[in-house]
Amino acid sequence: MSAQALAHAQAAFRAGDFTTAARLADELVARQPALMPALQLAALAHMRLGRPDLARERLEAALKAAPGDPNLVNSYGNVLDALGETGAALAAFRRALQIAPSLVDAHLNLGRVALKAGETDAAVAAYRRACELAPDRPGAWHGLGLAHAEAADPDAAAQALDRSLSVRPTLGALHARARLEHDRGRDSLPFWDRALAAAPGQPDLLVGRAAALRRAGDEPAAIAALEALVQAQPDALSAHAALAKMRFEAGQADGFDAGYAEALARSANPAALWAAWFSSLLQAGRPDQVLARLDAARPALGDSAGRYEAAAAVDAGQLERAEAALGGLDLSRDPELQLVNLRFLLKAGRPDAAARFGEPLALEAGRRNVWPYLGLAWRLTGDARWEWLEGDPRLIGADDLPLSAAELAETAEALRGLHRSRTHPLDQTLRGGSQTEGDLFALDHPAIGRLKAALSEAVRRFVDQLPPPDPRHPLLGPPRERFRFTGAWSVRLTGQGFHINHVHEKGWISSAFYVVLPPGVGEGAEDRAGWLAFGQPPAELGLSLEPVRLIAPKPGRLALFSSLMWHGTLPFDEGERLTVAFDVASLGGAR
């Protein structure tokens, strides 16, 4: 009887009927709690149904009976990963490999989760071993390529991805290969065309090809390609976002978001389209337009309309409306709304309430974005913890790098060729200038490579002089032995350009490296135009707090600081200010 029921459950699973498979397997487990095949099948079915908590229960029961089964331990690692328990998941995969060193799936899972956790060396090692054990598995080579790319080894990444494609040309590897070539600053159009031949009309591939067209200097063709895409696929959200961004940066600020409005009448998922449109408007600093369209969006958005009303009302300074909207929402499990509420409390002149609200949130894992607002609340209320968080002068450094004038000039020439937009990016913090796209340090250029090496040495010096480790502190808590760059870009500001005050919530250490400055800007300038300011909150919060420190810019000077410290650039009158910026992550992770 059990064998027949198990066979029916297995058949349902193979047919993709995971609901039936889970029900039948659970019924078997209820009758025979130690029936291993039923426990395993129930766990797999619950995972496919998005129920990792139930899968965990089944696998833990199975592991009590067979703690040394490497396949069970490996599956348990996948469940822990789905539950967000990354460290425990990595430990499970490593335990499975202690039991069965040749278990390919465990190597692949270890590589995948290690890569997600930022442990690039471990990811490369795991994927490399999987490739040795199963050279005919394209996924192993694909993963190795992604790991090498994340480890800033594009040549090795290209070789691994090409090997994956030679085994079997999967769409994922085709996409990754095109993206790698684009990120290196090379002609990636043939690679996008190869991927599109395998998946014609795939939106993310068409968006990538449009970006390649723009990089090749044909911005009109890039915009036209995205316009055709959203016309053919009105619910292609990535295409809408790319089109809005490209139009905005091309100087079409007035109608940058027209694609969303035109697509709504043809959308099969208007709620998602409205949400994407509102997010784009908020990024562009146009909360009034969100509020003006809310009534039209409510039938599609339903209860979630209140989220956008609260965020837009706060940004628009309509504090009574914001308070009413926030009062009707459940903030307890919504991190984005919790930040909206923090901004509201600060903007409404209630720093004590902001501190009370933010303090328990900052202690939660993954809530680094709360610290900058908590720091403002502590500073406004005279709480001494602000000094602990941001007051130590060693948390901000200035380092004049040993680069010659000729080397800086070569770097400037390379950077200028990468600035193609007519205005600032839709989703970034500069005003009156342009920013390069993609990861600057992935480009294949000798001046960029030389600069990266010099910057890496400077980051090491900065990390070595930091105050003693403090596990509670967002900058001083993470391990310091090894780090990696997680993104790099160049900013070119012109007359009256500046950066609005902001933070980098995903970084550990952030930076500004000065390549070119306008005449009269920098050391010795009495008006401090173009200087880098720390500790001043965004103007829209309406807080009367002055900078706590200023750094004078100078060609060849690098400023390094906690990514969670408010920073911005004071405006200057005219000329060119050309910089490089990057974020750094601890390879041990950031608290």
Automatic annotation (TrEMBL):
Gene3D superfamilies: q2cbj1_9rhob like domain, Tetratricopeptide repeat domain. This is 2OG-Fe(II) oxygenase family protein. TPR repeats lie at residues 70-103, 104-137, 138-171. Keywords: TPR repeat. Pfam families: 2OG-FeII_Oxy_5 (PF13759), TPR_16 (PF13432). Transmembrane segments: none annotated. The keyword Repeat does not apply. The keyword Cell inner membrane does not apply.
